[in-house]
Amino acid sequence: MSSPAPVHIRDESIRLGQLLKLAGLVEDGAMAREVIAAGEVSVDGQAETRRGAQVRAAASWTSPASRSRSSPERPRSTSPGDHGP
Question: For the whole model, what pTM was predicted?
Answer without folding.
Answer: 0.70
